[in-house]
Amino acid sequence: MQEREKRIFGMLAGCALGDAMGMPSEGMDAKTIRTTFGTIRRFLPSCEKDVLGRSFKAGQVTDDTINTLLVCDAVIAGQGSFDPFVYLSLLQTWICENRGQSQYMIGPSTKQALQAIADGIPLEEAGRNGTTNGAAMKAAPLGIISDYKRLDQLIDHVSLLCLPTHHTPVAIAGASIVATLSSYALQGGCDMEDMWELAERVCSHRRAYDLAAELDDIREYMIRHEKAEILRYLEKKGNRHRNDPDDPGRTDTSRTVRSGSV
Fold first, then answer.
1. String of b and e for 220-254 (b: at least 16 CB within 10 Å)?
2. Is 202:195 a contact under the CB 8 Å cutoff?
3. Which of residues 39 and 246 earns the better pLDDT score?
4. Where are the domains of the chain?
């Protein structure tokens, strides 16, 4: 296996490992995580307090990993390019073939967008309300086909990824940070200061948000949501897989993003 292939494998394995570690506490607040699990340091099954009512086994992944692999499948189908129509078709097929799981595996923005498409809304309009982190969670594979040194092209790739379900400035900006750090890591980058600088550069990049959007609004959202998932890890410089009880919410996504992109 070549060095780049090893890094790609590590990126995908990191996504899955982080996702599975965060799965049991997904959606819980800090107090519930602390009283139920303390600090999660190994794979655990979902419990009776699972906010989605799941009965997942220890080590089982969520929609974060499923979508990440579907993005990979779309890139493979496109022989190195990404087509949102191909990705959407793969996602719809997976949902149809996994009815038992998909009810727990599709986020609110994705569910809303898929319903809009089923109702006849054009793909270009279906994702205009998607502001959740469903874009960031699956963006790491775009680092394989994008170069962080060419941000315009990278953000264009991310915009295509976001088109069906999360085509909003904040979602595109958040996912662009993930893809940028993924590209940096896949090229052998590992300097924390570089990662900080790259995240800030993407956050300030004109192509990452609509010209009509206010930069201050984007910055505020990024600090509170997408960007914070990565930068919190950079700040701690600690174990990217450990679940911190003071880091609640979408613990599956935050671990997927951290482990897959940095």
1. ebbeebbbbbbbebbeeeeebbebbbebbbbbbbb
2. no
3. 39
4. 3-261
Q: How far apart are CA 33 and CA 222, in angstroms?
A: 24
Residue 169: both structure tokens together: 């400035």
Q: What is the pLDDT of residue 188?
A: 95
Whether the pLDDT of residue 219 is over 80: the answer is no
Residue 183 to residues 140, 154, 158, 187, 261, Cα–Cα distance (Å): 8, 9, 12, 6, 8
Alpha carbon 144 to chain centroid distance? 15
Task: Specify the CATH superfamily of domain 3-261.
Answer: ADP-ribosylation/Crystallin J1 (1.10.4080.10)
Among candidate residues 8, 18, 64, the one with its CA nearest the CA of residue 185: 8
Does residue 64 contact residue 141 with C-beta atoms inside 8 Å?
no
What's the pLDDT at 113? Answer: 94
Any idea what DSSP says for residue 136?
G
**126 close to 113: Cβ distance less than 8 angstroms:** yes
Q: What is the CA radius of gyration of the chain?
A: 17
Q: Where do runs of H (alpha helix) occur along 23-150?
A: 30-36, 63-77, 84-97, 99-105, 108-118, 123-126, 142-145
Name which of 259, 159, 151, 153 is nearest 202 in CA terms.
151
**CA count, 13 A, side-chain hemisphere, 222:** 29
State the number of CA atoms in the 13 A half-sphere of 242 facing the CB: 12
The answer to whether 114 and 92 are in contact (CB under 8 A) is yes
Residue 214 has pLDDT above 50, yes or no: no
Give the pLDDT band (50/70/90) at residue 215. very low
Burial of 73 per CB tally in 10 Å (0-12, 13-18, 19+)? middle
